[in-house]
Design a protein that fits this description.
Elements (H helix, E strand, L loop, with lengths): L1 E9 L3 H12 L4 E4 L11 E3 L5 E3 L10 H10 L3 E3 L5 E6 L2 E5 L8 H18 L13 H5 L3 H8 L3 H15 L8 H10 L3 H5 L8 E3 L4 H8 L3 E3 L4 E6 L3 E5 L2 E10 L3 H4 L3 E3 L4 H8 L6 E8 L9 E7 L4 E6 L8 E8 H8 L3 H16 L8 E3 L22 H4 L10 E3 L12 H14 L1
Parallel strand pairs: 1-2, 1-12, 2-9, 6-15, 10-13, 12-19
Antiparallel strand pairs: 3-4, 5-8, 6-7, 10-11, 11-12, 14-17, 14-18, 15-16, 16-17
Helix pairs in contact: 1-15, 2-15, 3-6, 3-7
Bound molecules: flavin-adenine dinucleotide.
Length: about 450
């Protein structure tokens, strides 16, 4: 079937849906083509076997994420704060120590080491212009090295290096030794600063949505012309744009492409994309993350005065949270396996992933963590319509060579998706603002 519309949008994640809604409000017709049988993309709420709803993808909102907060308010979404009551845990060499607030109990030398590294990273990050990272005064130098190399040079104690690496990997979900330092600084500035990115109360992990974040995407999609099961394979562009998908074709005046960069590379463009745009797409791999989720009859760790938040130098789970529903009717521990740890874990079957995750939970919360009533996860790297998560990142020498075309339209093709955002790039908020920006361009 061949159809005609004003704007065709590829991808029904928060970016594509936000673009479609803005266009509808401006009186333009838009068709959204989505490969999956659901909307939401990297936001995915699932029903755990015999358990409650669980967010296996994006779930949190936090201060300064103004686009997401406005959307939640507009929808009247029921939100609740992430559980933080009680002591947090830091595990070093398998030994657990309790702490309150944001600063783990480490030796003085390690604490000072972490503190000065964080201070220096934030000072450098503030020098990176969010709309043009390649114009930063030291852009070439910072883009020629990796965040991992910088940490190796600038941290003196092993404990500090291991824990800061674990914390940063949980922010980036990527190997720090593969990520451009300039990209890391851009990302830190884009999410305000490291305290905000790491933070629960007052940070990026502050607020959850009752029932899960995917419901927000579903409400956003209602009333829009979204076609599920329509994977786009080919795009012809020139005097108009014709997008060929699994169930037909749509011809439009303009197209908004709101999918992760490496999936753009899988689409056949006629004529081909300009070399700089093609290189940018080819040079931005995805990170890797698995949210390992164990469901218990009760949040038993709360009885021991623990918040459920833990940070460990040993994997595969380095960071864990209390992800229970707001009424505490059952207990949910959620731990992140990131980067190479996620790739190794993802190579196991579900029983193997469960066993590895529970070993980490037992290390932090004791024997009661060994017998959840259910376990669930999602291997984003194996999901063909994400191919990794949280998002794409720039290896060295990408921002300064081809980064400048990140938002530049190619004829009638416009680019959205969280990776193209200036603020909260990599987050739901960035996805929404990118969709609004692309809709305004159109
Ligand atoms: C485990 C995990 C935890 C996260 N935690 C958070 C968090 O707590 N807070 C936060 O703000 N962010 C979080 N994120 C990141 C956040 O989910 C993403 O930044 C955001 O959802 C990206 O939205 P998007 O619209 O840019 O892209 P996507 O959500 O990836 O949407 C793109 C859509 O395009 C579709 N698609 C792809 N290729 C094609 C094709 N060829 N044809 C048609 N359709 C196609 C996909 O199926 C998808 O639906 C997390 C992500 C993950 C995976």
């Amino acid at each position: 079937m061949s159809e005609r519309t004003d704007v065709v949008i590829i991808g029904a994640g928060f970016a594509g849906l936000s673009a479609a809604r803005a266009l509808r409000r401006a009186g333009r017709a838009a068709i959204v083509l989505e490969a999956r049988d659901r909307v939401g993309g990297r936001v995915y709420t699932s029903q755990a076997p015999g358990g409650p709803w669980v967010d296996l993808g994006g779930q949190w909102a936090g201060p300064t994420q103004d686009h997401l907060l406005a959307l939640l308010a507009e929808q009247g979404a029921r939100t609740f704060p992430t559980w933080t009551t009680g002591d947090n845990l830091v595990l070093v060499d398998g030994k657990a120590r309790r702490y309150r607030g944001t600063i783990p109990r480490l030796g003085v030398a390690s604490l000072l080491d972490v503190g000065q590294a964080q201070w220096r990273l934030e000072r450098m990050a503030r020098q990176v212009p969010l709309d043009a990272p390649w114009t930063a005064r030291h852009a070439e130098r910072w883009d020629a090295t990796t965040l991992g190399a910088w940490l190796a040079r600038n941290l003196r104690t092993t404990v500090a290096r291991d824990l800061l690496t674990a914390g940063l990997e949980s922010v980036f979900a990527a190997e720090l030794g593969q990520m451009s330092l300039l990209h890391a600084l851009f990302y830190i500035h884009s999410g305000r600063d490291l305290d905000t990115l790491f933070g629960t109360t007052d940070g990026a992990q502050a607020t959850r949505v009752d029932g899960g974040m995917q419901g927000v995407a579903e409400r956003l999609a209602s009333g829009l012309d979204v076609r599920l099961g329509c994977a786009v394979r080919r795009v012809e562009h020139g005097a108009a744009v014709t997008v060929h998908h699994d169930r037909g074709a749509v011809t439009a005046d303009r197209a908004i492409i709101a999918i992760p960069p490496h999936l753009i590379a899988a689409i056949d463009f006629t004529p081909r994309l300009p070399p700089e745009r093609a290189a940018l797409i080819a040079q931005t791999p995805m990170g890797a993350v698995i949210k390992c989720t164990a469901i218990y009859d009760r949040p038993f760790w709360r009885d021991a005065g623990l918040s459920g938040l833990s940070l460990s130098d040993r994997g595969p789970i380095h960071v864990a949270f209390d992800n229970s529903p707001p009424d505490g009717s059952c207990g949910v521990l959620m731990g992140f396996a990131e980067a190479d740890a996620a790739r190794r874990l993802g190579a196991l079957d579900e029983a193997g992933r469960r066993a590895a995750a529970l070993t980490c939970f037992v290390r932090a919360y004791g024997g009661a963590a060994a017998t959840p009533r259910a376990y669930t996860d999602h291997v984003w790297e194996h999901d063909p319509w994400s191919g990794g998560c949280y998002g794409a990142f720039c290896p060295p020498n990408t921002w300064t060579t081809v980064g400048r075309v990140i938002r530049t339209p190619v004829g009638r093709l416009h680019w959205a998706g969280t990776e193209t955002a200036t603020h909260w790039s990599g987050y739901i908020d960035g996805a929404i603002s990118s969709g609004l920006r692309a809709a305004a361009e159109v």
